[in-house]
Amino acid sequence: MGIQILEPNTCIRGCCSSPSIPLHLPPSSYTLLSPIARGAESVVFEGTLDGMKVAVKKPILSTSEDINKFYKELQLLCKLHHPGIATLIAAHAKPPNYMFFFKLYESPNLAQKLHVDEWTPTLSDSLMITMQLAKALQYLHNLGIVHRDVKPANILLDKNLSPHLTHFGLAEYKNDFTRVSIENWKSSGKPTGGFHKKNMVGTLIYMAPEVLKKDLHTEKSDVYSFSVSINELLTGVVPYTDLRAEAQQQTIGRASRRSD
């Protein structure tokens, strides 16, 4: 039996809708249990939804911009349907409790699996994860979406070790941030530092050299992050961890110049 969808199934702003993902949940339908992950922008809890175990992502919303980001992520997630992407089951899209309800995957994320569990994948495991993750990324890029934060910590594993890309808080439609180019930003009279702060996002050691040079994210920068992640999968070593942040950035930049 599926979760009941209450009509009209739109968010309170009217910008998000879905024929299959409930966007309003009565409080009696879900429970939040213990936290299983914490980040700067959200806390993820194990929970239940109509008796089913789920992962509940509760964003930390301190400003109106944070709320805007929640709705932007919800809009995007409602359109994604791929086996290599974490499955959104439901959402609660009105105050005071903004939440995403995802399928709960049995294994930890890839970073935890490699570095906490000290898992050594077989060649077959590595090839399977690489191929399935590549297909998920291709699916996003075919939709014009750039993830902008591909890394092992954002790759969930199920009981069969199949990967599921998650954390779409930084994802953007390529056309959206192409339109807000550095030239357009300058012509508006805004300082360029604000442009770079808005667009140079991600995690440093997985960030493509061109992004560090303050270019816009593209599908190619996602592929670079994917490649660094797969290198970590194959070697079990986190890249550049013997270097300070400034040295990491310089090392990535030098590697880029050698490949030009």
TrEMBL record:
Q: Domain Protein kinase: where?
A: 30-260
Keyword check for Oxidoreductase: no
Return the PROSITE patterns for the record: PROTEIN_KINASE_DOM, PROTEIN_KINASE_ST
Matching SUPFAM superfamilies? Protein kinase-like (PK-like) (SSF56112)
Q: What is this protein called?
A: Protein kinase domain-containing protein
Short name of one Pfam family: Pkinase
Q: Name one GO molecular function term.
A: ATP binding
Keyword terms: ATP-binding, Kinase, Nucleotide-binding, Transferase
